[in-house]
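Progress note, sequence design subtask.
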């Protein structure tokens, strides 16, 4: 009897101690709260999610850019302990783990606290032929000592009606923002309908360098405010960094499942003889293409001499009314899931027949 009582009492103290430690670990003296995703509470659900989306994301080249680092560690939060460079890296490394579990190919602009020049980040992503670029940042308010502003936002480059706007960036931003803001239980902020923002809001007609200078669909996430009284505390916890990364991962998975149309020219279009009146493009996509979505532009001007064969996903552009010389061709289409095509912009040179034949 006595032994049993002793064991019971010991068990009680051990369990109480563990409970207090667990409570301390999650919330501690800190006054913060966050929701653990069901996939973290039940590992089987996590495995099921990853396996479900692996067919769509495997072999995709994902370039992750944890913002700042090395000499650039300026944004340190209101109390000096929520260092943006480190939080960005923690989220990026957790995202890398999830993506690799789904057999994606991941590259990072940095995987430790090192200095990386801004232009090198986009240059590296381009040289690796990445399918997607995600730049990870955390925010700070415009007004000094503001400790109450906090929201989660995702930026895309340019604005609709501007030439540099590629709607696939906006699609990607929407998919990531939805799952990211839900995972963090943050709103998208008061200045946008859905938490996605054009980078022209921050730098008019210019945007963020890392988004402007990349060829592939690219977004920049601002996970939350390191300056916010409560958010700064959550952001310094590795578990919360993983939750944030899980949100980005889920958004990416769903984006790739919806399919990204890829426009491919059937022949080399760098230089075209003017007697070749029609050039053909195949649109590769796992779903169907919305016939009414096709936009063809020559030198920024909308061009309507084309036909689109929905069944064969074949786009034929008739060049009869295009003058000889250099032109810039831009094509955008959208699939029936609402995802726009991978950015397609090419310089083409239409050459007179006589020039080729040497008659003139
Ligand atoms: Zn930043």
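Output:
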């Amino acid at each position: 009897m006595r032994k049993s009582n002793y064991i019971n009492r010991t068990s009680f103290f051990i369990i109480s101690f563990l409970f207090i430690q667990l409570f301390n670990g999650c919330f501690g003296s800190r006054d913060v709260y966050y929701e653990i995703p069901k996939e973290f509470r039940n590992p089987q659900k996590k495995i099921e999610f990853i396996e479900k989306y692996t067919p769509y994301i495997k072999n995709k080249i994902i370039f992750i850019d944890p913002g700042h680092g090395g000499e650039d560690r300026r944004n340190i939060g209101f109390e000096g302990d929520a260092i943006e460079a480190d939080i960005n890296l923690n989220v990026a490394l957790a995202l890398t783990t999830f993506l690799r579990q789904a057999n994606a190919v991941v590259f990072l602009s940095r995987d430790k606290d090192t200095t990386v020049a801004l232009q090198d980040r986009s240059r590296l992503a381009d040289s690796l032929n990445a399918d997607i670029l995600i730049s990870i940042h955390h925010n700070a308010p415009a007004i000094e000592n503001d400790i109450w502003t906090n929201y989660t936002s995702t930026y895309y480059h340019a604005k609709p009606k501007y030439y540099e706007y590629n709607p696939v960036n906006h699609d990607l931003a929407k998919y990531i923002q939805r799952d990211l803001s839900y995972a963090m239980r943050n709103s998208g902020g008061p200045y946008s309908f859905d938490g996605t923002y054009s980078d022209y809001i921050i730098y008019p007609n210019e945007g963020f360098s890392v988004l402007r200078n990349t060829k592939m669909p690219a977004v920049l996430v601002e996970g939350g405010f390191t300056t916010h009284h409560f958010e700064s505390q959550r952001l310094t916890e590795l578990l919360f960094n993983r939750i944030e990364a899980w949100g980005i991962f889920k958004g990416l998975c769903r984006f790739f499942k919806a399919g990204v149309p890829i426009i491919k020219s059937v022949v080399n279009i760098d230089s075209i003889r003017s007697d070749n009146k029609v050039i053909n493009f195949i649109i590769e996509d796992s779903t169907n293409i919305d016939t009414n979505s096709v936009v063809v532009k020559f030198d920024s001007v909308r061009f309507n001499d084309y036909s689109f064969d929905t069944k064969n996903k074949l786009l034929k552009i008739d060049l009869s009314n295009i003058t000889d010389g250099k032109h810039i061709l831009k094509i955008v289409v959208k699939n029936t899931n609402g995802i726009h095509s991978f950015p397609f912009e090419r310089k083409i040179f239409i050459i007179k027949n006589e020039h080729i034949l040497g008659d003139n």
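Residues 2-26 form the longest helix (25 residues). Work on this subtask will continue into the next period as scheduled.
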